[in-house]
Amino acid sequence: MKASLTLAAWSLAAVLAGVTPQALAGEGHDHGDAPAPVAGQALPRFTAVSDLFELVGVVDGKHITLYLDRFADNSPVEGGTLELELDGKPISVEPHAEGEFEATLQEALKPGVVSVTATVVAGEEMDLLAGELDLHEKVDAGEDEHSQGWKTYAGWLGGGALVLGLVGWGVVRKERARNQSAGGAA
Prior knowledge:
The chain is of the alpha+beta class. Among the domains are: 45-135, Immunoglobulin-like (Sandwich); 148-186. The chain is 28% helix and 33% strand. The protein is built from 2 helices and 9 strands, in the order αβββββββββα. It has a 5-stranded antiparallel beta sheet, with no helix packed on it. α1 (2-18) packs antiparallel against α2. The longest helix has 36 residues, at 150-185. The protein is rod-shaped and about 100 Å long.
């Protein structure tokens, strides 16, 4: 009987461990609002680096924002000009702020690897930067084989708890039947 109670207690503990209630903070123990979750995928970006300059481009559909900094100290390039080519085609670039430029494409870039070439002139300094932009097809969240909802895991957890509970109940019932037959024969 003692073994069956121990097994039943362990089974109950296993079930309860899988179904713990949400911890709630009492009055005065609030840690403030939770940070807002980040939604969506990051925008595609590219870098082109030399000994003098660093160029980062962020592609949002037909719009490209370019950030041009000095490589040595990451400060924005002041008064610089920028010429940009994507796959050998010149792209018109307009200055937006110190070290920041914008470009608008005629059409959105197609998936694949796009070569990036930039010519930078800043005062007496001039440099040619090269890099690549690797664009991928957008993956629908429903198509991603690794994105399973919490309901899937909750179902498995609930099923496991049910199996553990049934095994514990079966062991306790079998032990009771054994004790009753042993007690009745004596």
